[in-house]
Design brief:
Layout: E1 8-18, E2 31-41, E3 51-56, H1 63-74, H2 76-87
Antiparallel strand pairs: 1-2, 2-3
Length: 90
């Protein structure tokens, strides 16, 4: 199961602006997004490192903030498991 593999993560980011489709530009604003690229460091032998490409509208002003967002995303599996337990009646 993907969730059980922990990783020492290294990350970098860039900014991009995504325009709405033509014809909808009056109704929807352009999105200013950060793309965070993260690669697992110290992957187990015989396995490819985990590579994540995360897109967020949260501010990412440096490496420390990129790693913070990666750590938040890494908690996703635990949160999903928590909700699964709650839905199944504990």
């Amino acid at each position: 199961m993907f969730c059980r593999r922990s990783a020492d993560k290294s990350g970098s980011s860039l900014r991009m602006v995504v325009q709405p489709p033509i014809g909808k530009q009056k109704r929807y604003p352009a999105l200013d997004l950060a793309v965070i690229y993260a690669t697992e460091r110290g992957a187990p032998k015989g396995r490819k490192p985990i590579v994540w490409k995360l897109i967020t509208d949260l501010p990412v002003r440096g490496r420390a903030e990129a790693v913070e967002k990666i750590n938040w995303y890494a908690m996703r599996c635990k949160i999903e498991m928590f909700h699964k337990v709650l839905k199944s009646g504990c």
